[in-house]
Amino acid sequence: MRDSWFKISIIDGAINICLFLERYPEHNVTGAIEKLRNGPAYLASYDYEKAQHLGQLIGWEAFTIPGSRQEQLRGILKRLMIHFQPFWALHSYLGRDKVIVLLSDDVKQCLKVADLLENPMSEATMMWWDDIGKFFRSIEENRKLEIGREGERRSINYEKIRLKNELIEKEPAWIALIDNTAGFDILSYKKTEQFSLCELMIEVKACTYEPRHFILTRNEWLKAIENKDRYIFHIWNIVKDELIVLTVEQVLLHIPTDCGKGKWETVKIVLDF
Fold this sequence. Notes:
Layout: H1 8-23, H2 29-37, H3 41-44, H4 48-58, H5 69-84, H6 96-100, H7 105-113, H8 123-165, E1 173-174, E2 186-191, E3 197-207, E4 212-217, H9 218-226, E5 231-237, E6 242-247, H10 248-252, E7 266-271
Parallel strand pairs: 3-5
Antiparallel strand pairs: 1-2, 2-3, 4-7, 5-6
Helix pairs in contact: 1-2, 1-4, 5-8
């Protein structure tokens, strides 16, 4: 449904309404639409009903951007993408070609009319795509942070219940909120074979789709192997509310090795079981 607003007939309809009101300020939007529909044929064919709705949704000022038609369309399309955040726009930080394959014909036409699909790209076009990519990269980073925090929140609750069930009169600590460089997210406790208590470091990972997977940093792994007897991993599937608990030894099977002058910094581990 978000793509349904990306149509030239709607965008040009909104532009024409604004132009009419600029020339005839005594009219309101409804009056402007009536006049335009009864005017010249080339103006009467636009989708003014949806144009009116769109103007109310994102603000009429979006359709009064100064400059050439190309500059105006580019500004409007940027405003639409930021407001509606369609699926394809969320991938813009991966590059224009990754977006193009996801586009409907109507969206593709809008971008084409705005000369945003030109090859080779002009400097202005590159800057437009770069701005869009930066915006949606920040959206993606925030989304990942929220997913990670949700996983940590669930692990805190999980550990509170576990500690209570094991008659351990301690509370888990949310270390990631205090020091995000600690190399683990939650500090909890467990009983040793001698029935004494020791600290338990928990690194929490979370994802929202299958196969379950997570990114492990070198810093996290170094912390894990330094404390392998009191370090575990919580891997959450947020959608299914499922938890897998892994030991350092189990994760070790998936860790790459440094080679030559190369040194790994992050590794993606896919759990296919």
